[in-house]
Amino acid sequence: MNIFNKTTYKQLIVAALCLPLASCVSEDPFSSKGEGTLMLSPEIRSEVTTRSSELTQNTDLREKLVIYIETSRGVIKKIKGLDNLPPFIPLKSGRYLAEAWTGDSVSASFDKKWYRAKEEFVIADGENKNLPLVCKIANVVVSVKPDVLGLGMSNLKVTFSHSRGSLEFTEENIAVAKGYFMMPNADKHLSYKMEGDKSDGTHVVKEGIIPNVQRAHEYVLNITSEPGENTLGGALIKIRIEDIPLIEETVEIFGRPTIEGVDFNIDEQVVGIPGTPAGQKGAFTDKIVYVRGYEGIYSLQLRGGQNFIDMGHIAANYNLIDPSLSADDVALLANHGITWDNPNDITDPVTGKRMSEMRITFHKSFFDHLPQKDTEYRMEIIALDNQEPMAKNQTKVLRIATSDAAVEVKAPVETAPAPDPENAPMAVLSRSATLTGYVMTEGATNYGIKYRKQGETAWTKVPVQAGTRAPLSTFKVDVNGLQPSTTYEYTAYSEGYDKEDIQTFTTEGEFTIPNASFEDWSSYSASTLFGSKNVVLPWSVGDKEASFWGSGNEGSATANKTLTNKSTDMFKSGQYSARLGSDQALGIIAAGNIFVGKYVETEGTNGHLLIGRSYNGSHPTKLKVWANYRPGTVDIVKNGMDKYLPEGFKGSSDHGQIYVALTTSPIDIRTSDPENGLFNKDAQEVLAYGQVTWTAPFGADGVLETVEIPIEYYERAKTMAAKYLVIVVSASKYGDYFSGSSSSVMYLDDFELIYDK
Questions:
Q1: pLDDT given at position 203
Q2: How far apart are CA 58 and CA 117, in angstroms?
């Protein structure tokens, strides 16, 4: 199958960052029991010399960052934006691919660039891995050598182009401009056109192509003038293309500063009783916090809450590296038990990059000065690595409990957020959902998930088990009997636990196939080898671009034949059905057919189709249709096509077929290439597939009968969202090979997608 405009999850790229992810061994790729770590160390490389204007784009690149982690089954994790990258991603042992994308994917631009990185890696059980990602520009780059400005030509213009865009270099920008192209899948070459006026007034035009261009290469158009015979104006204009594989200059964008506790988890409470002597139960101890920034530490603030202010313990806001911080302020903080080191430059042992590091010590005396109270104290630690707007920030809160009443009591179970439709598209369907919770304590009993329609008060409980399970384990429940396009609330529950950490999810809508009963028909004018022809179209308006359905009628119009048309011979609803009648045209079989998509063009006697129309991403279990099929005897087999046909096909009963698929992109069909140009149900773009093939009559004479086609979902459908619906019907299944019966007929009415549960 020839893939058209292959569109997958792989469409964005990354700026440099140094960020940790974790791996684990589990049946679930996101199990919480992993012990390994994956450290990503990407950098961005650009072919353009670093300028201040380049660096000001870094904030934009960070926001546009998308990272994918995928297996052979498809994407298992997608992160949008640098600030949304979690510190750890649990993974089971196995082979993975990391991809990173950022920038602007524009067909042609003088300033919009596109970057990407891709690395395969393997995670072993318990392994800690450092994975560098070198992110390079993904554009084809063009420029014009500025020497052309010295040739004395006026009105000079150089245009580069491909099928989807063009860039024009003029005398004003030739000296400095570079052009950035994203190449369409179908384009391998860039065209160029140089024109201008020579000193004698002669208008010169030179055109050509730059063949087989490669991304991350710059193609420099070098225009020279040399004396020669048969020239206009006494000079011969020559054009030479220089292919320069650049990408040497480096622009780096790192992750946010990190704030970590030494020998304690800064995200958990520090618990103790003020004044308890060292070494005794309940005594506070010194707590050291490290702050690190890859682009320096510009500001490090301590921001105490009102409780600190009220008791005169510490001021509300201190910047520990503010040059204006007085000696008295430093002494005050030290008296209250807070000291720190000035920033030091160190080398990150994981990435090898230079970074700044500071150490803050919260001494025992700091905690002992806090009066006991029933709620926790909160001290914000805020690190910035630069001035706005380039600054990246990180905030952690030192939370302190000074009494039993202030100690955070963990819930026995917690609710996981609703599944992301992009990363887990089959977790929430139109009538069912798979929801996740976590066991947080050993005391969790009789737990599960409860849910209700948003706006209602009564809960429905779905229990997991009556026993206990180890802390930090995952449980899942299947919720059925839901309504499409409806928002539900849910939360984890267990015996004796009433806190409601409510999450929401919305079920998928169900897709209604347009013109499914074939009541609407029209026509449009198409150009053929024998002039313009009217082509019958199963749509209300004669526009094949807008029509949900297409057929091969445009191809058969060359022979003045209409293979697919409305019929009143038999129908299920309304007054029409679709009649698909195979016929003989120009000595070959023209199969009666109808499909979701459009007929692009006729190439000689071959058809070029684009099958699939935009779809809402839902997950039906069956395709239902009313049909009647009367196969003829195979009377035509095109020479050379026997290897694609069943043995003994000629003289046998013809085959009728209906197939349905959900895909990530439309599918390009070219009957001129039977090896690669036809539909392949196992292609990566196909997420689900179902089909029925008839080799004998179906349905009683003159009667439509229902058939339901089960839709099988491939494993990759669990991590890739369906964007297109494909339905293809043919009265002669092997019509793509120009073989079959010229008398096969099929009637169709009332297509419908069926959603179970």
A1: 86
A2: 17
Judge contact between 619 and 725, C-beta under 8 A.
no
Mean pLDDT across the chain: 82
Summarize the confidence of residues 450-470 as an average pLDDT: 84
**Is the preceding omega at residue 389 within 30 degrees of 0, hence cis?**
yes
Share of residues in the chain with pLDDT > 90 (%):
43
Half-sphere exposure of 405 (CA within 13 A, CB side): 4
Q: How far apart are alpha carbons 356 and 340 in whole angstroms?
A: 14
What is the per-residue pLDDT for 104?
A: 85
At residue 576 the predicted structure's pLDDT band, cuts being 50, 70 and 90, is: very high
Helix ranges (H only) for 488-595 are 553-556
Q: What percent of the chain has pLDDT over 70?
A: 80
Of 369, 442, 404, 405, the C-alpha closest to 281 is 404
Distance in angstroms (rounded) separating the CA atoms of residues 470 and 265: 21
Q: Which residues of 544-559 are buried (b: 16+ CB within 10 A; e: fewer)?
A: beebbbbbbbbbbbbb
**92 within 8 A of 26, measured Cβ to Cβ:** yes
Q: Using an 8 Å Cβ cutoff, are 67 and 99 in contact?
A: yes
- What does the alpha-carbon distance between residue 360 and residue 291 come to, in Å, rounded to a whole number? 8
What mean pLDDT do residues 117-139 have? Answer: 73
* Cβ(68)–Cβ(77) below 8 Å: yes
- For residue 12, what pLDDT band results from cuts at 50, 70 and 90? very low
Token output for 714:
């491939």
Least Cα distance to 72 among 122, 145, 147, 1 occurs for: 122
Rounded mean pLDDT, 426-436 = 94
Question: Nearest-CA neighbor of 46 among 76, 89, 24, 16?
Answer: 16
Residue 313 pLDDT: 56
Residue 99 contacts residue 71 (beta carbons within 8 Å): no
Per-residue pLDDT tens over the stretch 83-116 = 676 656 667 778 888 888 888 888 899 988 888 8
Quote the pLDDT of residue 86.
64
CA separation for the pair 38, 90 (Å, rounded): 9
Provide the 10 A C-beta neighbour count for residue 623: 24
* Enclosing H/E stretch for 462: strand 460-465
3 state SS for 262-325? CCCCCCCCEECCCCCCCCCCCCCCCEEEEEEEECECCEEEEEECHHHHHCCCCCCEEECCCCCC
Interatomic CA distance for residues 108 and 178, integer angstroms: 11
Strand order in the sheet with 317-319: 270-271, 393-401, 377-384, 299-304, 317-319
Q: For 735, which DSSP code?
A: G
Determine the 3-state secondary structure of 554 from DSSP. helix
Going by C-beta distance under 8 Å and a sequence separation of 6 or more, which residues neighbour residue 724?
Answer: 612, 613, 614, 615, 662, 663, 664, 665, 666
Q: Report the C-alpha gap between 454 and 319 in whole angstroms.
A: 46
Task: Report the candidate in 474, 273, 258, 445 with the shortest Cα–Cα distance to residue 371.
Answer: 273
The count of C-alpha atoms lying within 13 angstroms of the C-alpha of 145, restricted to the half-sphere facing its C-beta, is 17
Phi, psi of 365 (to 5 degrees): -65, -30
HEC string of 656-724 equals EEEEEEEECCCEEEECCCCCCCCCCCCCCCEEEEEEEEECCCECCCCCCEEEEEECEECHHHHCCCCCE
Q: State how far the alpha carbon of 45 is from the alpha carbons of 113, 115, 248, 257, in Å.
A: 11, 8, 7, 22
**Cα 752 to Cα 550: distance, rounded to the nearest angstrom:** 17
Q: Which residues neighbour 6 within 8 Å (Cβ) at sequence distance 6 or greater?
A: 185, 665, 685
| SS3 at position 369 | coil
Residue the block writes with tokens 């970590």: 260
Mean pLDDT of 604-625: 93
Over the Cα atoms of the chain, what is R_g?
34
Please state, in angstroms and rounded to a whole number, the distance separating the CA atoms of residues 722 and 431.
Answer: 17
Contact between residue 460 and residue 438 where contact means Cβ atoms under 8 Å apart: no
